[in-house]
Specification:
Layout lengths: L1 H14 L6 E5 L3 H12 L4 E6 L2 H9 L5 E4 L10 H16 L4 E6 L4 H10 E9 L11 H6 L3 E4 L7 H9 L9 E6 L3 H10 L6 E5 L2
Parallel strand pairs: 1-2, 1-4, 2-3, 4-5, 5-6, 7-8
Helix pairs in contact: 1-2, 1-7, 4-5
């Protein structure tokens, strides 16, 4: 779990997150959850997470990782374009959750619509950090980013964060154990991969152990 925590730590560093900041995260997988945990100990005042998987969002709220959550529908309305979908989602999230515009937004999905939702949820002078890797060419609402003077920051894995990540785990500052929902012995690797591909509702992180 040091490796995904290193990604999260590097992402929050790149975000230049400050105490009192409002944080918005798309994607409640292991990386998104760890970004939220690191953001919390870095002083984030509020953390909002959105995902298509309601079970993962329930996990985030149950473990105190997110303050507010919203489940994004899998499908667009008939005839709705990608930009229209992202605009509608950001409006619904704002109206329903009554959250402030984000000082920092993390896209942990790599999905075009989620990146555009992050841009729409980010306030003037904020930062949007692209953590997830998706298609190499995507349509981004650059006009909105320009008008709000949003900095779009890319993340490529991590840099000089392994030792700090180990320290955070050893000091009990970041709980990674709760994210490990399933474990398999090394001789059961094939079963573990098959299980992970099925994406059961209660799966967050599946790890291979060696006794």
């Amino acid at each position: 779990m040091v490796e995904p925590l290193s990604v999260a730590l590097h992402s929050v560093r790149k975000a230049k997150l400050e105490a009192g900041h409002s944080v918005f995260i798309t994607g409640a997988g292991a990386i998104g959850l760890l970004c939220a945990r690191v953001a919390r100990i870095s002083g984030a005042a509020t953390i909002t997470m959105v995902d298509v998987d309601e079970a993962r969002l329930d996990f985030a709220k149950k473990h105190g990782i997110a303050d507010k959550t919203y489940t994004i529908p899998m499908d667009r309305k008939e005839g709705e374009t990608g930009p229209e979908f992202s605009a509608r989602m950001s409006t619904e999230i704002q109206d329903l959750l009554k959250i402030p515009q984000a000082n920092v937004a993390f896209d942990c999905t790599g999905i075009e619509s989620c990146l555009n939702i992050c841009i729409a949820m980010a306030g003037p002078g904020s930062r949007v950090v692209i953590v997830g890797m998706g298609r190499p060419v995507q349509e981004v609402n650059i006009a909105l980013a320009l008008i709000r003077e949003i900095e779009i920051v890319g993340v490529w894995r991590y840099a000089n964060t392994f030792q700090p990540a180990i320290h955070l785990i050893e000091a009990g500052m970041v709980d990674v154990k709760s994210l490990v929902t399933h474990q398999f012995e090394i001789e059961d690797v094939a079963s573990a991969l098959e299980f992970a591909l099925q994406r059961p509702a209660d799966l967050v992180k599946c790890v291979i152990t060696s006794s």
